[in-house]
Structure prediction request, 321 residues.
Amino acid sequence: MGLFDFFNKGKKETLDQGLSKTKESVFSKLTRAIAGKSHVDDDVLDSLEEALITSDVGVETTLKIISRIERRAARDRYMNAGELSVLLKEEIAALLAENSAGNAEGIDLPDGIPYVVMVVGVNGVGKTTTIGKLAHQFKKAGKSVYLGAADTFRAAAVEQLTSWGERVGVPVIKQKMGADPASVAYDTLNSAKANRADVVIIDTAGRLHNKINLMNELSKIRNVMKKVVPDAPHEILLVLDGSTGQNAFEQAKQFTAATEVNALAVTKLDGTAKGGVVIGISDQFHIPVKYIGLGEGIEDLQFFNKSEFVDSLFGNMKLNA
Prediction:
C-alpha cells in the first residue's frame, strides 16, 4: 500500500457526503438553468455560467468551461439539455486533467533526513487542525513525525498544536511566547534529525501581513531550516478555507506572492455549498491541491484526486429537461 493510500482507503462515502451540500446546490442551479429547454442554447449556457460562478468556481475557470461546452454543443447538434450534467462532468474533468499542475503525486521521503513541510495560511482556516490530521496519517503509515510550534505570537496556537501532538502521540518542539519563529524551526529540525525522524511539520503564524513582512518572515524560517536540512522545506503547504469561497482565491494570491507555495490544502468543504472553489483554485494557480478536508474527524482529511472529486460531484447527477 502506498503512503497516501492511507488517506483515502475506504473513504469514497466520506467524499460523497462531504461534497453533498455543493452537489445539491449545483444540481438545483443546473435544473433551473435547463427548465423547459429541449436543447443546449445560449440561454442554457448563460444560466450555466451563472450557476458555476455562484458556486465559487471562479470567473476565469467558468468561462473556460462554458467555452468548452459551447464547442461540444455546436459539434453535437442534437445534444439534449438533459445530457448537460454528463457533458459538464466530462469537460470539467478534461480541464483539470490538462492543468499543468496535474494531480499531486504524493511524496518520496528522502533517505536519512526528515521530509520537511512548512504550513502557511491565515488564522481560522483550519491550519493547525490540518497539521494534526497530517501527523496522524503519517504516523498511521508507520512514519515518525515531529511538529514545530513556530507560531509563537498566539498562545492559543501553541496550545492547540501541543494538544494535537498529545492526541496523535508525536513530539511538539516549542519555545516561550514571542520567541523567534525561525529559532523554533531550527530546534525542531535539529531534534528531528538527531532522532532520525521521517517527517517534520512546521506551523507558522497566521497573521495577515503586508507582503514584504510576510515574505521576510517566511524567508527567514526557510533559510534557517536549510542550515539543518539543505533541501528544506520540501513542501510549502498553503491551507485555505473552502467555505470562504472567493476569499480563498485572495488568500492564495497573497501567499503565493510571498513565498514559493507548492501544495494546497482546502478545508471545511463538508459544511459549505462552495466546493466549486476547489475546481477554480486547482485550475487558476497551477499549484496542486494536495489535500481536502471533509469533516471534523481525525480521519476526514483526504489526498485530493481530481477525477474522483469530479466523479463524486457530478457522477450521479441526472437532469431532466
